[in-house]
Amino acid sequence: MDSQAGISRAAALAADEGQDSGNSEEKQERHYIIYLIIVALFGWALAAYDTNLFNLTIADITADLSISSSMLGVMGMFVYAAEFLIALYMGHVMDRRGRKYAWMFCLIIAGIFTGLTFFVQGFWTLVLVRSIASGFANAELAVSVTLVNEEVPAKRRGMLYSIVQSGYTVGVFMASGMYLLVSGLGWRSVFLFGVLPLILVAVARGKVRESPRFLHMKALREALASGDEETVTRLQGERNVNVEELAKGKFYQLFDKEGGVKRTAVTMSVTWLLYGMSYVATNIYLAYWMTEVKGWSSARVASLLLVGGAAGVLFYIVGGLLGEKYGRRNVLIGSAVCIPPLALLILLSGSDSVLLVAIFLLYQATNGTWSGVGYTYQAEVYPTRVRALGVGWMSAMLVGGFMLGSLIWACLTAVVSLETTWLVIAVGLGAAQAASTFFLPRVEPGMELEEIAA
């Protein structure tokens, strides 16, 4: 009896130790996810930080380097082209070298060229430096979308990534703060000091681990290449992957009939192209349009957008929570459907109070709730075997939308009024964007990535 009692106590003790070990591992995993979210948030904040440092100093730079408005337009096209190509390139790097490697690479190159802005002496050196800095800062988003969404738990994926996405607003405030602190030393000093936060995030990012889904995919590719069927079967049992398509690893796979993602790639590309095109009016040229058409001062528009940006942190997270409850596709539809009537109201209204509310809501529909779910949705609809390529492609499509929208804006403003231009781009293309969202694939919230697509 004593022996049996001893065995029972030993078994109970072993069970308690096992439970404690399990609880400890779960706690460590939870702490790591929190750490990853914070690092990702500040990484995306620094991408916005770089862009907004340039936006804040552009008047000083153009005056110092004698750059005309038309030359700025040329530089903008080079920057967009760089962002497009680098987004595609980093999709390939993520797929072949790993998510963590790509993440560090983007941050380091963006940081170096942000600092090199200090040394520019002429127009073409400025174009080169800013194209590379902006290109890799923009690619940060694609890598972050892929890595974070592959790590976080399925049931909270949308809400957790919406927190990361809110980092864009943090970056706006960081850039404003840095500008106010050191702009008295000249615009060059703003970029030199701007490297410091990038270094801190790079150090923190060194502790981030590689995505387990990428490691699984890498091991599966190696097993397939060596003909190790036993390992392939074991890995397939862990996570289901379409091994026939895995071996391809090229962008054309996104549009290959046999790959199973052609419809997804086409519908997503159309939606994000239209989103980028309408965004040119509803965000990029909004301050200019309001100044020229409604007679507002630039400072007044900037103040409203600053308030909208601050509130946007909340709207990003609200969008993420709504996506968890009602599905991310439905939140995208709801956000896009709001854009045309709000844009039309801004065009027709002469009341300042109505304009204030309409612009605030338009900003949230095109940024907060849309982005709060949109980038998690991108990661979900593409299977792991092409997720990096797919998300990189989508980042390029957004930039492509900016390029097309800017071209349409330039062509229209040359022959018709600003009011008509707004009607075509903000209202018309905004309506096309809304219509396109109804064709996006349905994804139930809370599903594991492998359950959505293999």
TrEMBL record:
Gene3D superfamilies: MFS general substrate transporter like domains. Keywords: Membrane, Transmembrane, Transmembrane helix. It is found in: Cell membrane. The chain crosses the membrane at residues 32-49, 69-89, 101-121, 127-148, 160-181, 187-208, 272-290, 302-323, 330-348, 354-377, 389-416, 422-440. CDD domains: MFS_SV2_like. PROSITE patterns: MFS. This is MFS family permease. It holds the Pfam family Sugar_tr. Its main location: membrane. Residues 36-444 form the Major facilitator superfamily (MFS) profile domain. It is a multi-pass membrane protein.
